[in-house]
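Lecture 7 notes: from sequence to structure.

We start with a single chain of 157 residues. Read the sequence below before looking at the structure.
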Amino acid sequence: MIAKYEHLFVRHMQDSTDDLVNEGAIGTGEPRPSHIGDAFALMRAADVPGSKIHMTYSWINPTDEPSHWVNEHEHDYDEVLIWTGSDPENPHDLGGELLIDLDGETYSVTTSGALYIPAGLRHCPLDFKSVSRPIRFSALSLSGDGHYHSDENVPKG
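Now the structure, written as tokens:
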């Protein structure tokens, strides 16, 4: 017998690289840098019909080479970007440095944390200046329809 709420679980995350239309080869025309891992869907309408959010995560692996990841864009919904370091003895240390622009101002991030991006705020580019330990990166899109989209690109599928 299948449990009543089994349909609300994601038990095998699907590759969601094609959803993220501002990142990697889709957004930049360049191949994704080898230290940036695949994007996996934690929650989205494609996997859980009725979901009103789209949430992904990726691992960012160590590199000494600065790299561009996400182009400038904006959404008509709120978004939260989350980055966490991988040192359990020092959870506040990101293990690298990322740079992100908000409405043309560049911010440097070297600690685990999150960024709330209100609807309509232009953000990115998002670049990694350096990564000394793996970083977990998540994006939570509060899109209301469970899909990722922006003013620069239309969603696939």
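The longest helix spans residues 24-28. Keep this in mind for problem set 3.
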